[in-house]
Write a structure and sequence with these properties.
By secondary structure, the protein is α/β, with parallel strands linked by helices. The chain contains 10 helices and 8 strands. The chain folds into 2 domains: 46 residues; 241 residues, Rossmann fold. Strands 1-2-4-3-5-6-7-8 form an 8-stranded mixed β-sheet, with helices on both faces.
C-alpha cells in the first residue's frame, strides 16, 4: 500500500500516535472508528506501522564499512555513560565525522542504517542511543517512545552534546564535525548549532523544531533545513526561524519537499517518499562534503 491509498485522517492520527503517549492499541482502536472514503482505516493504520526489514539499505556486513557499538563517558547526562553505534569507513582515516541523531524513540534499526549510509559516503558516523542509560532501545518503538519521554530533556540533550564532542575528538576524526537528525533529532541539530558555535561545522536537521529566535545569533555552522510540505506542527516555527537566520546573516538554506509528510525520509513506513528522500539525502551529503572535507 502506498500513501495514495491512505486517508489523511489516518496520517494525522499516526502523527499524533508518534508524538504522544498514545499506545499502539489506542492508535488502532481510534483508527478502526474512523470513516474514510475508501478501504479500511484500520488496515491503513496497520500499514503505517514501521517495518524495519525494509529500512535496511546498507548491510552491517558491507565491506565498505566497519560498524561497532561503543561506550563512552557523558558527564552531566542521564547516567554519566553513553552507548552509540560507531560506523567507520574502510581505510585508515582520519575521516570527517557526522553525528546521526534518532527520533523520539531511541536508536532503532532505521537510524542505524542511516549511520551506515553516512559511513559509505566516507564519513565517520556515530549514532548515539539516548535510551542507553536506562537500558537502550527496547526493540520496538512503542516502548521506546515511552522510555524517551521519561527522560529529563536537558540531561538527554547533554548526552547528545557529549556524543558530538566525543566524536569530534575521536582519533579517527579529522576534527570536522557535522550533525544530522530526524524529528526529535532534527531539533537537537538546531540546538547543537546554537550551543556548539564554531565547534559544529555543518548541520542538516530533518523536520526539526527551530531554536528560540533570540538564540540564533550564536549559530556559526552552515545549515540545511529539510522540511516536509505537510507538517504543520514543525513548520509552525519555520518562518520565524528563517527571519532570525536572515537577520543575523547566517549561512543557511531551507528546502520544503513537495508532496511529503513528516517522516518522509524514513523508509520503514509508507510516509517514505522515495524521490524526495533521495534528493534530500544527496543535498545532505553535498553539504557535508563541502564543509567537512
Amino acid at each position: 500500500m502506498t500513501e495514495d491509498y491512505i486517508d489523511p485522517q489516518v496520517y494525522d492520527l499516526y502523527d499524533e500516535y508518534c508524538h504522544t503517549q498514545m499506545t499502539r492499541r489506542q492508535f488502532l482502536n481510534r483508527a478502526s472508528a474512523l470513516v474514510v472514503a475508501s478501504g479500511s482505516a484500520l488496515v491503513m493504520a496497520e500499514t503505517l506501522l514501521p517495518h524495519y526489514v525494509r529500512a535496511q539499505t546498507i548491510s552491517f556486513t558491507d565491506e565498505r564499512i566497519k560498524p561497532q557499538y561503543i561506550e563512552y563517558d557523558s558527564p552531566g547526562g542521564t547516567s554519566g555513560k553513553m552507548r552509540g553505534y560507531l560506523v567507520k569507513p574502510a581505510g585508515d582515516g582520519p575521516f570527517p565525522a557526522v553525528l546521526v541523531i534518532h527520533e523520539n524513540r531511541g536508536l532503532n534499526p532505521y537510524i542505524e542504517d542511516v549511520a551506515r549510509r553516512v559511513a559509505v559516503e566516507g564519513f565517520l558516523a556515530l549514532a548515539p542511543d539516548g535510551l542507553a542509560p536506562i537500558g537502550g532501545y527496547p526493540g520496538n518503538d512503542d516502548d521506546g517512545k515511552i522510555m524517551q519521554k521519561s527522560l529529563d530533556r536537558d540531561k538527554l540533550f547533554t548526552d547528545m552534546l557529549n556524543s558530538a564532542q566525543f566524536l569530534k575528538k575521536n582519533g579517527l576524526s579529522n576534527g570536522k564535525l557535522g550533525a544530522t537528525g530526524f524529528c526529535y533529532g532534527g531539533g537537537v541539530v538546531n540546538k547543537l548549532a546554537v550551543v556548539m558555535g564554531t565547534d559544529l561545522n555543518g548541520g542538516v536537521p530533518f523536520y526539526g523544531v527551530a531554536p528560540p529566535a533570540e538564540e540564533v545569533a550564536k549559530i556559526h555552522a552552515p545549515l540545511m533545513m529539510q522540511y516536509a510540505e505537510d507538517d504543520p506542527r514543525v513548520n509552525a516555527s519555520q518562518e520565524e526561524y528563517k527571519k532570525a537566520l536572515e537577520a543575523n546573516n547566517k549561512n543557511f538554506v531551507m528546502h520544503t519537499y513537495t508532496g511529503t509528510r513528516h517522516g518522509f525520509h524514513n523508509n520503514s513506513t509508507p510516509r517514505y517518499n522515495e524521490e524526495q528522500a533521495k534528493v534530500a539525502w544527496e543535498r545532505t551529503v553535498s553539504l557535508f562534503r563541502e564543509h567537512l572535507t
